[in-house]
Design goal:
One of its GO terms (cellular component) is cytosol. The chain is an alpha/beta fold. It has twelve helices and 19 strands. 40% of the residues are buried. Bound molecules: pyridoxal-5'-phosphate (PLP).
């Protein structure tokens, strides 16, 4: 077999953690509500090609992605009976491709609706679409006042089936947005009535992301679009505390699916009174043992973690010292005995009793869980573990 060099670090995806998170989500929603696994952003950095088949194995049958190329990767990597919904905008070629592959997609404006009408006429196939409405986030979606015009265009075309009607909430993870979210829900419910009065269409209704599932459980309607929870994270601390206060006996209901690991490539002892790495950001007050790890900002390890980050080596938490370089960083391992080249380094995950969560990692760098995960490069090798 031909030799293929691998990345200097690897990501492990835990199947048992994913199973636990999926059960948590299923238990949090009504029985008839569909759980759609949101896999945008390369499955929040987990790697769509490895994550999607695993989620399918764990029983997920509905996936939401952002773009046509993500839907393409999903089709390539998961063979079976499931639905795909694209939430982002599509050009005419992508619309045609989606319809030909029975992929559902959002229609957020008249441009996309008109393109879709043209395509279905040309290929004489039915498009299953989700009408996205603007309810107060002021991002994408039709104003509700366009309702009549939308329906009449769709009815004329005959080849468009309204599979869903949806909106997105503008920050349901924070109680500070309560009024704004409640207004959005109210608008959506009025819209829902308009559809129910039509009778000629029986769409599903969906508005809830992870935070809304936990904070607005009465308003999950027919489907939830859940991202971050399935990967084992609460959307933010506030949502975790809210959940914990309601379920005090359920201390850690979610389990982190991802771990990120590498190996030490160099160790050495530096005399007291020297600088480590570029410039003068780290000075050795005492004789210091250091270890070099082949991870840097080119691999998604934020440069803001210079002199801030933590890693696990030999079961202990050690500091990142000096600046994070493009491809390397340095750890202070003075207090560890027997550290040697090839020792495992954990950047996210567990080693013995210690753990580094993405959250603790991102508090240091002011990056949200979401952002840090989504930035993990696609070419780091991923593997499934139990
Ligand atoms: C990202 C996204 C979600 C999922 O958000 P989470 O907070 O990760 O659950 C749901 N709906 C839409 C439209 C999204 O873009």
């Amino acid at each position: 077999m031909q030799y293929k060099p691998e990345s200097t670090s690897w990501i492990e995806i835990s199947k048992s953690a994913l199973q636990q998170n999926i059960s948590f989500i299923q238990n949090a929603i009504p029985k008839n509500t569909v759980f759609s696994a949101v896999l945008k952003g390369n499955a929040y950095g987990h790697g769509i090609e490895i994550y999607a088949p695993l989620a399918y194995e764990c029983g997920v049958r509905h996936f939401s992605v952002f773009s046509a190329d993500e839907a393409y990767k999903l089709l390539e990597s998961v063979h079976g009976d499931y639905k795909i919904m694209i939430m982002g905008s599509l050009n005419q070629d992508e619309i045609r491709w989606a319809i030909e592959h029975q992929i559902e997609f959002y229609i957020p404006n008249f441009e996309t609706l008109e393109s879709t009408i043209k395509v279905v006429q040309k290929i004489n196939l039915t498009a299953k679409i989700h009408l996205e409405f603007e309810t107060g986030m002021n991002r994408t979606g039709f104003p509700i006042s366009d309702f009549k015009r939308i329906i009449s265009m769709i009815e004329q075309s005959k080849l468009i089936e309204i599979e869903g009607v949806c909106t997105h909430l503008a920050g349901s993870e924070s109680i500070a947005n309560y009024k704004r979210i409640k207004d959005q829900i109210q608008k959506f419910q009025k819209l829902k009535k308009k559809f129910e009065n039509l009778e000629s269409h029986t769409p599903t209704f969906h508005i809830a992301c992870s935070a809304a599932v936990l904070r607005y459980p009465k308003y999950v309607f027919d489907m939830v679009r859940v991202g971050i929870l399935q990967y084992g994270f609460f959307p933010n601390n506030e949502t975790y505390i809210h959940h914990y206060l309601k379920n005090p006996d359920q201390k850690n209901p979610l389990k982190r699916v991802i771990s990120w690991k590498s190996k030490i490539i160099e160790t050495k002892t530096v005399k007291a009174g020297e600088f480590v790495g570029y410039g003068m950001s780290y000075y050795t007050n005492i004789q210091t043992k250091i270890a070099i790890v082949p991870i840097g900002y080119a691999y998604g390890y934020n440069r803001n973690l210079s002199n801030q980050g933590k890693a696990l080596v030999r079961g202990l938490k050690v500091d990142v010292i000096g600046t994070v370089n493009m491809n390397m960083m340095t750890l202070d391992v003075t207090h560890l005995t027997d550290v040697k080249i090839g020792d495992e380094v954990v950047l996210i995950g567990e080693q013995d009793e210690q753990s580094i969560s993405v959250a603790s990692f991102s508090e240091n760098s002011n990056q949200l869980n979401y952002e840090l995960l989504a930035r993990l490069p696609k070419d780091i090798k991923r593997k499934v573990v139990d």
